[in-house]
Amino acid sequence: MKKIFLLGMMAGMLASCHTQTDGYTIKGSLTGNADSGKVYLERSEYQAEPTVVDSTVVENGSFTFSGKVDRPGLYFVVIDLNKPGEEPDYQNKMFRTMLYLENSDITYKGDVATLPGFYYAPERKSEAPKITGSSVHDLFTKMNEGMQTYSDTLNVLSDRYSDEYLIPDSEGKDVSAVGMEIAREEMKWKDKLLAYQLKFIKDHADSPVAMDQAMYYLSGMEFLPDVVEIDQLLALFEKYWAGTPELKLFEQAASAARPLAVGQKYKDIDVLDRNGKTVKLSSLIPENEYVMLEFWASWCGPCRGEIPHLRKIHEKYKDFAIVSISLDEKESEWQKALKEENMSWTQGRMDGGIYGSGAKTYNIQAIPMCLILDKEGRFYKTNMRGAYLDVFLEDLYQAD
């Protein structure tokens, strides 16, 4: 089960006691087995892979970057201690750390035994490096410290959900009750965390840290905002970021999020039915019913792992419609998976897969992704899977 680093993965042009210069220097020092290696400075790019802007080498555990940025922003320091010709070790010899960079003198201190690996490894103890000299990064650190209680609690609940629900459920055990209990508790803490994050955004709207947090919120990966919230955030950032590239990107993100906001009618697009015929999505969605619009693909392991649970839901709740839309590019792979998984409910496929126009319309950035529609075909909930879906449906049909 993926740990909750929630929005701490995304990221203050505030008044500061740090010395501002015409450029920046980053002086890094590493303890442990770090005599030599390479270091890359990457700039974060919204909805794209980071861009390498500089590189240097590690000599006797030290490295240095220098340059100048037009404005503070989120960067990554990537340290590669793998030897040429050896099999890369992405957990113990390659590390990636977020850094809010500004034109100041910055120090980076870390131990290679505990630096966060390039890829997350739950069995490895990790500790963020100590970064000083950037007032923007100080704010990022302060935000994460404020979220610590929430994220620690959610991490414990996430482990419980995996150990007490996901694993036993995959073994065929009936653990729905404990899964729903944990899911309800997680929902409460996620709501508390979201309230903290939204307050942080409003209190620090002049900061790139808050801007990054808001961009993540608009992505819909955890929550669906409503149109009012989107417009309020946009008005807030316009006050501080007018005329900047960052505001333009935020406007684009807001534009992409608005059609999927809570209360908005679903977008009718062309899809392919089981027979390969092009039909409207609306022809697959029943009227006057709650509907789960689920996006998946045959090559997506977590998607297929959820299918046995969807079969149970389909059997139990006859008035709850599931419409699964595949992002497979090849029809043969989609059809093969349908047979293997015995998916008897309504199915369709987006032409062009995850890079097609349909995926862009629905702002699909990762799968599995599900959107719950109310009886009027308006977006109602997101991320209702596993025991979360059980909780949602139990509450929904008890209320009805």
Which helices and strands appear, and what pairs or packs with what?
Elements lengths: L23 E8 L4 E10 L2 E12 L2 E6 L5 E8 L13 E8 L3 E7 L18 E3 L2 H36 L5 H28 L4 H11 L8 H15 L3 H13 L12 E3 L5 E3 L10 E6 L4 H16 L4 E6 L4 H11 L4 E4 L7 H5 L7 E5 L5 E4 L3 H14 L1
Helix pairs in contact: 1-2, 2-3, 2-9, 3-5, 4-5
Beta-strand content estimate: 15-25%
Low-confidence runs of at least 5 consecutive residues: 1-19
Given the C-alpha coordinates, what overall shape results?
globular
Strand order of the largest sheet: 13-12-11-14-15
The total number of structural domains is 3
CATH class call of the largest domain:
Alpha Beta
Helical/strand content category:
alpha+beta
What's the rounded overall pLDDT mean? 90
CATH architecture of the largest domain: 3-Layer(aba) Sandwich
The biggest beta sheet reads: 5 strands, mixed
CATH superfamily membership of the largest domain, which one? Glutaredoxin
Terminus-to-terminus distance: 33 Å
Radius of gyration: 23 Å
Describe the structure.
This protein has 400 residues and is α+β, with helices and mostly antiparallel strands. The protein has three domains: 24-130, Carboxypeptidase-like, regulatory domain (Immunoglobulin-like), CATH 2.60.40; 139-260, no CATH class; 270-399, Glutaredoxin, CATH 3.40.30. It contains nine helices and 15 strands.
